[in-house]
Design a protein that fits this description.
Elements lengths: L2 H9 L27 E11 L10 H18 L3 E11 L4 H17 L3 E9 L3 E11 L14 E5 L5 H9 L8 H12 L5 H6 L6 E4 L4 H12 L2 E5 L7 H4 L3 H10 L6 E5 L3 H14 L3 E8 L3 E5 L5 E2 L14
Parallel strand pairs: 2-3, 7-10
Antiparallel strand pairs: 1-4, 2-4, 5-8, 5-9, 6-8, 7-9, 10-11
Helix pairs in contact: 2-3, 4-5
Adenosine-5'-diphosphate binds next to helix 1, strand 2 and strand 3.
Length: about 325
C-alpha cells in the first residue's frame, strides 16, 4: 500500500468535518478552517516517541487514544473547545493491524470530543506520532498558568493521581500489585487517560489559573507558581489516590502522586471565598469530574509541603520528569 492509499484508507475516509466549519480538510496543501466569530484560537502539539512516551507492548487502539488524549488535555487546561487536529506520523512499515487499531482508538476519542482530523503528514521512519490540536475560547477567556493569586485554593481533578506511574513501575519490575485486576486498572490510567475537557470548559471564568499534569504534579504546579510569581503550600495527604495506589507503602504513594507524571489531570487555582468554592463545586458537578482541594497559593515563592498533621516535608525529594535532565 502506498502513502496516499494509506492516508485515504485509515485517515481521510474517517474524517468528515462539517463543510461549514472546515470547507477544505484532508487532501489539499492546507486545510481551510472557519473560526467562530469572537473566538480566539489555541494551538498545541505533543509528540509521542516509542520507548520514551509509550512501551511497545501498548495495544494500537490505546496508542491512538492516548496520542490524541494528551493533546486534548492541553486544550482542557486552557478551557478551550476542541475544533481540529493534524496528525504527523512516522511508521517503520505499513502494518495494517497496527493502523486499523490506531485509527479506531484515535477516531473514537475524536468523535467523543467532536474534534476533526484536518490534515497531517505520513512518512517512513521510527514509530513517532505528533498531533497538533486547535481549539477556541471566547476572546480573553483562556485559562493560563500566569493567573494564580495569593489566597487562591489549589485543586487537582480525578481520583487516580499516581496510578499511571505505578503501572510504569510494575512494567519495569519496580513495583508489584496484588492481582491482575489491579494491574489492568492502573494500566488503563497509563494507556487510556481521559482528558478533562468538560471540566476545563466549566472552569472558564471560575479558575484563575490552570495546567494539566503531564510531568508530575509538583513540577507542573511549579510552572503555575513561576508564571504567576507566587508560591504555595500543599497538604500531601490530601492528594486523591486510588485504592490500588493506597495499597502501596506511603513513601511510594506520595512519590507517585506528587511526581509520577502521565496523569493528565488538571491542577488549577480559584478564589477561596464562599462564592469561589461554590463555583468550583458547581463546575465539578456540571462536568461530572471530582476535584480535590490540596493547598493554597501564598506570596512567598516556592513550594511548602506538609502532611495531614501539619508536619513539614521536603519538596526537594520529589522531582518531576524532564527529558533532558541527567539524574
Ligand atoms: P504535501 O506533500 O502537500 O505536504 P501530503 O502529500 O503530505 O501533502 O499529504 C496529502 C494530504 O493528506 C494533505 O492534505 C495532508 O494534510 C494529508 N495527510 C497526510 N498524512 C496525513 C495523516 N497521517 N493524517 C491526516 N491527514 C494526512
Ligand atoms: Mg503540498
Amino acid at each position: 500500500m502506498g502513502e496516499f492509499d494509506l492516508i485515504q484508507r485509515y485517515f481521510k475516509s474517517q474524517s468528515h468535518p462539517s463543510a461549514d466549519a472546515v470547507p477544505v480538510g484532508i487532501g489539499d496543501d492546507c486545510a481551510v478552517i472557519n473560526p467562530t466569530p469572537g473566538m480566539q484560537w489555541l494551538v498545541s502539539s505533543d509528540m509521542l516517541v516509542e520507548g520514551r512516551h509509550f512501551l511497545s507492548t501498548v495495544a494500537p487502539e490505546r496508542l491512538g487514544h492516548k496520542a490524541l488524549a494528551v493533546n486534548l488535555s492541553d486544550l482542557a487546561a486552557c478551557g478551550a473547545t476542541p475544533r481540529a487536529f493534524t496528525l504527523a506520523l512516522s511508521l517503520p512499515r505499513v502494518d495494517e493491524t497496527f493502523l486499523s487499531g490506531f485509527a479506531r482508538g484515535l477516531f473514537a476519542l475524536a468523535q467523543a470530543h467532536d474534534i476533526a482530523l484536518v490534515g497531517g503528514d505520513t512518512t517512513a521512519g521510527p514509530l513517532n506520532i505528533c498531533i497538533t490540536v486547535m481549539g477556541e475560547v471566547p476572546r480573553g477567556q483562556a485559562l493560563l498558568r500566569s493567573g494564580a493569586r495569593v489566597g487562591d485554593d489549589v485543586y487537582v481533578s480525578g481520583q487516580t493521581l499516581g496510578d499511571a506511574r505505578l503501572a510504569l513501575e510494575v512494567f519495569r519490575g519496580q513495583a508489584s500489585l496484588a492481582s491482575a485486576a489491579e494491574f489492568e486498572q492502573v494500566r488503563r490510567a497509563m494507556e487510556c487517560p481521559q482528558p478533562r475537557a468538560q471540566l476545563g470548559l466549566a472552569l472558564r471564568g471560575v479558575a484563575h489559573s490552570a495546567i494539566d499534569v503531564s510531568d508530575g504534579l509538583l513540577g507542573d504546579l511549579g510552572h503555575i507558581l513561576k508564571a504567576s510569581g507566587v508560591g504555595a503550600r500543599l497538604d500531601v495527604d490530601a492528594l486523591p489516590r486510588s485504592a490500588v495506589l493506597a495499597g502501596q507503602d506511603l513513601a511510594l504513594q506520595r512519590e507517585y502522586g506528587l511526581a509520577g507524571g502521565d496523569d493528565y489531570e488538571l491542577v488549577f487555582t480559584a478564589p477561596s471565598d464562599a462564592a469561589g468554592r461554590a463555583a468550583v463545586a458547581a463546575a465539578a458537578a456540571a462536568s461530572g469530574t471530582p476535584v480535590q482541594r490540596i493547598g493554597a497559593i501564598e506570596a512567598e515563592p516556592g513550594l511548602r509541603l506538609h502532611d495531614a498533621a501539619g508536619l513539614a516535608l521536603s519538596a526537594a525529594a520529589f522531582s518531576s520528569f524532564d527529558h533532558f535532565k541527567t539524574p
